[in-house]
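We modelled the chain as a single entity of 309 amino acids. Its sequence is:
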Amino acid sequence: MTTLPSSWATQEPHALLWYEQVINAAVSIGCVAYGLHIAVFATCSYYLITAKRFSWFYQIYITILFILASTNIACNVRFSELSWIDERNYPGGEAHKVHLEQDNLPVHIVGDAAANTITLMVDVLLIYRCYIIWASWKIVVLPSMMLVASTTMSILRTIAAAQPAGSIFAASAVRFGLPYWALSMTLNMLVTITIVTRLVLARRAFQASAGQGYRDTYSGISAMLVESALPYAIVSLILIILYARGNTAEILFVPLLPHIQCIAPELIIIRVRRGRAWTKETSQSLSTLRFDQQGDHSGTAIETTGLKR
């Protein structure tokens, strides 16, 4: 196999070489995730358009998410182009310095703002789904307060990074960035755990009174993965851990996260349109099942009609 001469290899320090490799790989990972997002967005739009009752709200919602995600990936690609191609004569002779020292360029700020807006929109929907599944506004008071706090931190972080000498790695931006990521991740984990807990409890009730079909539909493994947006929670957790530790590998997850975030609500909407998602009627029926279990179970066959797919 033909190999390139070793004399052609870069003489950069290993840490710097790893940093540049991660930046290059991150954009590619983001593009792959964007391709997956396109497929899920198209599928979700299909179910919305072919439904008996078209939902303008859901269609507009996922379209805005898709536009924001497209803006984010386009800005990432453009910023990498500036670093490695257009501005290769940047003072210092090292392309990575554009990433470190010019994060306040409009193309980067716009992409970052698009990602922050995606986070806000997705978290709002997840909190709403948490309310639907628990059928109680009290359960979403704390997540709602955390949402307000994380949104405030994200705005302050973006403003700090947009300053003339600013950068998302600058101390002024990190001061808001770390609380933002921590609040956002904690909010997501809290909502995920809350939803999964409800589904696990419901699974037992359905198994005892409504049969395996209802149990698998409303509280099965797929329901838990989709309804709780578990992939979003996992990626967020990995990102915040790496970010807090100052690990360069966190860059790999930055372009990936917006698309995972967008895909999460789109999968929920698909389940809604297929009649397999949790609704207010499901919560009411679950309450009826529990009441039945405390009685003589004589009305179970009638009361579970609210669980029809």
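As a brief sanity check on the tokenised model: Residues 295-309 have pLDDT under 50 and may be disordered. Residues 90 and 98 are 7 Å apart (CA to CA).
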